[in-house]
Structure formats: C-alpha cells, structure tokens
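Sequence in, structure out. First:
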Amino acid sequence: MIASIRLTQFVGGPGELVELGVTAEEAGFDQVWFASDPFMLHTWALCTAVAQRTSRIEVGALGMNPSTIDPSEIAAYLGTLDLLSSGRAVAGIGSHTDAMVPKLGLDGSAIPARTREAIGLVRALLAGSPIPTSRRQTDGRSVSGRAFSWDPNCALGFTPQRPRIPLYVTAYGRDFLTAAGGYGDGVLPILFPPQTAPEVVSWVHAGAKAAGRDPSEVDIAGCVWVSVADDPRVAGDLIRPTIAFFGPYLSEHDLALVGLGPDDFAPVTAALDADGVDAAAKLVTDDMLRLAVVGTPARVTDRLRELLAAGVTQLSIGGPLGPDPAAAIRLLGSEVLPALR
C-alpha cells in the first residue's frame, strides 16, 4: 500500500502547504500531491519548494490538464523537478471533471483524448524517443495526433534524471477510467463518495486487461476527502465546506450510493452560486458527510481499510484533514497508517 497526502489551498497558504508537505514526509507518507486548478495557487511552485525541503517523499502535481497546459511544458517541468528532487517526481495528467474548462472557453469533452495523447508525448520527451504520431503532414515538417501538431524533431534541451517518470492519469467517469487503465502508470480517481471504489477498480482493471496489461501494474490511487478528530462532530463540521464545494459536481448515480439525490443538493448549489462556499456549507446535512471519510482515527481507519479491500492500492488523503492539519497528518501517520500496513 502506498499512502499519500493531497494538499490544496483550502488547508493553508503557500508557506503552510510547504510545511505540511515536510510534515507528511516526517509522518511516513510516501507521496505528497498538490491539486492543479486554474486560478488557484500554482502547484509547480509548491512542488518545487517541497522537493527542496525533503529527501524521501515523492512529489507531484495532479490534474495537470492538457487542455490548458501544453505537454511540452509538462515534460520540461517534470524533468526539472526530477533533477531538483533527485528522482522523486510523479505526475497526474488529466482532470477530475470536464465542468471547469468551459469557463475558459474550452471544450471539456476533449480532455480524455488530449490526456492520452499528452501522456504519450511527455513520455517520449522524457525518454528522448521519437515523437509519437497518428499521421505525418504532407509538408514533412510536423507530426500530428488528434490534438497536438509538433515538429518531429521536438526534444527537451536537457537530460532528465530518469527517462521514465511515473505518469498517473487524473480521470473521471467509466470510459475515461477504463481507458486510463490501459496506458497510465497509475490512476487518480476521486472516490467521492468512497462507495464508488469497487466499480472504479473494476473499470481500471478492465482497461488494463483489454490493453494486455497485468492490472496489478496500475497503481489505483483512490482520492478521498478525510477529516479526522477525536470529536467526530468537529471532524464533520470541518469537512462541510469541502462537500459543499464539490458535491454539486456529483452524478445522480454517485449520490444514490449514499442515499442522496440531486434534489438534496439543490439548496447547497443555490447557496454556493449566490453566496459562496461558507454559506453553502451551513446547508450540508449529516447524511451528506457520508460522501467523505469522517470521524475518529479508529473510524477513519475502518473506512480506509474498506477501500483497500475493494482493490485500491494507494490511499490518497485530502481535504481539511483535521482541526490542525499538521497535527492531523501526524495523527494519521502514527495511528491510522500503521494499522493499515
């Protein structure tokens, strides 16, 4: 089992997030991930800072969307981070939703295809291999996939630490996750709610088998939202803003897994649109807390153990974490992870 911490600006500013990454290494976590979103604190700067403050933990940005970031930039960033970290870079390419990029005037439906093509291009650049292509243009000067048209002589201007850096697919939905099982070194599905784990694992394994791969080669990094505290009421209150922010993106099917429906979230969505996340959080009910992993260390351990039993191979823990995020990371490292390993 791999254990990772997933950090966003909802738990602190840039300096605090870097310190939390250092704390995660000290607490025994294997990886630290920073979520990549438009207009949010930039993950590349955070990853670089953590890489220079740590010596063991792997460091990665997840959700690097090839609809907004060119694969050439992703490859150059990864190669640089791997040199700075002495071979500890990991990456999550793709997105957890197609609902955000339309705000930028982009087509969200293109994300799955662009992700697959981008990962092929990033791998080629890191390895110094020929640029993969589905066809060659008639002028003989450029090669094209469905989304990217590059000169065939494109190459990094430096030698990376490693010719192959683990590339995870940040994916959503049955089709995208199934395809990702065929080409990703790992996948980073949002398990929101956690009850989606069995079907997500089955999709990824099906994709791996269809591509002739051993499913055990694919690290399934189940991304869950966690709030842990000795007082379960405190843990629940802490995670209400997270549920208010992300809950409206959930499908009817996912909500039904915890006995909810879109109508239950309608007041939350309306408050979020009108007055922001704090107002929406006040409308998150106790039943909605089932969308995350919430409670005492013992309760959190039991819920995470269920994910491992479903076939998840990496526990990617994000969210508010606890009343004191650093203390929560240490608590997870001292009480929860030892019980799961």
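Second:
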Amino acid sequence: MRSLIWPVCQYEKSVIAPAVAQCPTMDVSPLGTIAVATDFSEPASVAVGWAHRLGALHGARLVLLHVLGGTRERQLSPDEAQRGIDGIAATIRSEGLRVEVKLIEGAPGAALGPASIDLGADLLVVGSHGHGAIKRLLLGSVAEEVLRTAALPLFVVHPRDGQRPIRFRTALAGVDFGDASRRAAQLAMRMLDRSPEARLLLLSVTQLPVSFVGPEVPAMPLVEVSEVTDTAREGVCRLTREFGGHGVAVEGLVCPGAPAEAIIDTAEDRRADFVAVGGVPRSSAARFLLGSTAMDLVHHAACPVLIAR
C-alpha cells in the first residue's frame, strides 16, 4: 500500500535559511576517504562500483579492504587475494582516482569497522545479498555484523543496485529529530553531487503511541492524530530551515505509517538514489527496540541505504 506523503516546506539551493547562522558546525565538505569491503563476490563488485563513483565525485581517497580467510564459501590465499585486489585497484586508478589496498586479518564482520576507522574513513561501503538472505553471507554474518558493531557510517549496497544508475543526486533521510538521524541527514547532504537537480528530502514518519488494554480490546491512542502530525510538521520545518542554504535544495515531508515502509514508499515515489537513517544502537537491548527500521531498510529497500550512528 502506498504511503500518504504530506509536503511541509522546502528551501531551494539559492535560499539562505534563517537558521543557518545558528548551525555554524554544519559540515558540508567533500568526503576525504571512502573504504569499501570486497570479497570478490557479485555484491562486493556492486559495492565497489558505487564507492568508485562516490570517490570520483568527491575527489576522495578510495581504500579497498579484503579480510584474509573471508567466508567458508570464498577462501583465497594471501597471494590470490593480493592479486585480486590489486587488479581492482589498477582498473580504478586508470580512471585517475586515488586508490589504496589493504589486506586485514580477523573475522570480517568485526574487523572491517576498526580497520576503516584506523584509515580515517568517512564511510564504509559494504555489499549485501538483500532480500531474505539473512542466513547467507554477506548479509547474515558479515554485513549485518558490521551494521551492528561498526562505529562509523555505513553505505549498504545490494546486487540489484548494480542495475540502477549510480547517482548521488536525490537523498531521502528519515528523521526522528534525534542525533543519529541528524547525522545521517547531514552525511547524506555531503554525499550529494552539487548539480542543479541535487535535493535532500527530510521525511518524518508519524506513528501514534498507543496503550495496550487487553487482547480483546483495541489499543487506544494516547494522543490525537493532529497533535502528532503538528509536532512532526514543526520539527521537519525547523530541520529543513537548518539544512537549507548549503548548496542543495531541501524539502521537508511528513508521512503517517510504519517507518521502514513509509521510507521505502517515499523513496520510490520521489525516485531517491539512496536513503539515510540513524543507525542501529550498539547495545543488544537498544538494537532490539530501535534498530528494526535500519535493518528492515537494509533487507527491503530498493536502493542503497546509508546508516549513521
């Protein structure tokens, strides 16, 4: 079922928003270093393609990472891994991009995040198998483990993303007005190109808090629908003003429904090139309560997913 989307407010790229002066720390600088994991699989190849394009767009240093040992299905000797990763790097270097390679040891899911941080990466790009593949690698024990444990932003790419244009022109950021979603929106804006069509969409999804009475009695809303919607509209307008005036058009949206479903529907409706959300908390209890939206998007979104802590 398609979600009902309410446009709230927008700032074109030429408009300097009143709130900009209150946010002098807004970082809109190009990305400096992008790490991308490869195990030479199809999902990894697609991830490298997106990382390559993003690196070229920003003039960034691209670091190719491979974990020695890899998975049981795909074990290479150090020499084989070195030849494989050097071949990928040579192809990318031929197009003028700065590329480095690094072979690391350890469990892939646990090793990729720390290695990327040691390299000073702004972002780690990983490939996943996507739909229904939780029992398979990469998503299941590698990409999902990185998602749960890494302390830096992740950009998760699916094999089907290899069939779509690699663009960074329209980003949809799901916002709940917390710090993590704000960081996700800010990084999404940094990742966008600076073409006239570049646009950041800020989406607040409204859900009614309810009280549970009993199995035979419907749950009762604790607040009025209008109250929740008005609060979301005010928050989105405030955030849209804050993000406006930085060289990218910004539009605020409010949509009722379940967060992951609404984000997926809106991204398809607005033809977003990727979506962004605040990340999965690192504690197990918080992950269970708050991490479902990010995980659902990784599994089901029809475009790449940016996750920021």
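Remark: The chain is about 35% helix and 20% strand.
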